[in-house]
Amino acid sequence: MKSPKEVRERLARQWENVDLREGRLLGAARDWPVVLAFGKPQAEVVRDQTGLVREHVRRWNEVSVGEVIWKEVRYRATLEPVRYPAQWIIRDAEEWVRASGERAVSQEYEALRSFLNASDPVFHSLLVRRRSLWRGRPKGEVTACLQMAVELKPGCAEGLPLRAFPLSGNDSKFFERNEALLLALLDLRFEGEASAQGLGVFLGAASEGGHWLLVVDLDGSLLPFAQIRLRASELTSRGLPGSHLLVVENESCLHQLPRLPGSLAVLGSGFDLSWMGGAWLKERKVAYWGDLDTWGLDLLGRARERLPNLRARWSIADCPLH
After folding, report:
1. What are the strands, taking DSSP E only, across 43-113?
2. Is pLDDT at 104 greater than 80 in this prediction?
């Protein structure tokens, strides 16, 4: 004979099951109702422990959540049929949470329900499955992240520090406190690119230490070193030597760069392309080399907004610089 307490503990454990939680909170109507079935009391228990059976029935009579289905069964040891709880029917998520009797489950459900109501459906599965992203955090900040994640897009900071980004709810430490949640939300919209790039670079924001770019001397005589690193912000106002510049999306392509007279290469810009608006670049022949995928084409488009005459190449062979 399962007591209400034992079944409540079972319902509370089910809340911790990720797939079950997602199915019941976000699934179709077929996930409801949940029917919990119980066996009838054993004949020897009815015969030898009548008080225990009565207490079992009394406790189930006190259950006010959902619907308890009762049945009757006859035993040799009793003059009348014994009425016992055969099923407990839980009709929806709210009844499930109430039936669990766990304060922590109830608090999580109320928070989660408010987040689901305040967010785009594309984020719902993430919120339900990965509670660690929002659990224990101020509800106002989580809601602000959910709203921001719809507004934010690659490069939208346009060189501003994240702390100065003009969004409602932002303060000097907002992005730092909520980076993990924002990255997870943006990854859903942008195919994991936010985490791959890093939040600041993805949004095109100036970090406290600046976004460092790798500059490579393809000529061999234009710089005092074969490779140097410069802040992207410095290249906005200060030009590089040489007559030709190759802008490369990823630093991983370094080993594929050829020797090119009069040429330098800048690698690893990602979404931080604000420096390409520098006036000195209009006096150079500039080519762009990026990935032939959605993001590579998007980055090429952003670069061409700053340099309309930019030439593109998807293979280093026949580099268009010369």
Report:
1. 67-73, 82-90
2. yes
Which H or E element spans position 287?
strand 285-289
Question: Token match 């200060």: residue?
Answer: 238
**What is the Cα–Cα distance from 125 to 99, expressed in whole angstroms?**
23
Residue 106 lies in a domain: no
3-state secondary structure of 175: helix
Q: Would you say 257 and 239 are in contact if contact means Cβ atoms under 8 Å apart?
A: no
* Domain co-membership, 231 together with 298: yes
> Is 50 exceeded by the pLDDT of residue 318?
no
Mark 167-178 as b/e (b = at least 16 C-beta within 10 Å). eeebeeebbeeb
CATH no. for residue 217?
3.40.1360
Tell me if 223 is assigned to some domain. Answer: yes
Region of 68 (left: φ > 0; alpha: ψ -120 to 50; beta: rest) is beta
Q: How many domains in the chain?
A: 3
pLDDT tens digits for 45-62? 888 888 898 898 999 999
Confidence label for 317 from pLDDT (cuts 50, 70 and 90) = very low
**Pairing between β-strand 34-37 and β-strand 82-90 as defined by DSSP bridges:** antiparallel
Strand partners, 247: 266, 288
Domain span at residue 146?
118-203
Strands 227-231 and 67-73: unpaired
What's the rounded Cα separation, in Å, for the pair 85 and 54?
12
Question: Does 39 reside within a domain?
Answer: yes
- Is residue 320 one of the residues assigned to a domain? no
Q: Distance between CA atoms of 144 and 168, rounded to whole angstroms? A: 8
Calculated CA dihedral for residues 129, 132, 136, 139, nearest 10 degrees: -50
Between CA 224 and CA 209 the distance in angstroms is: 24
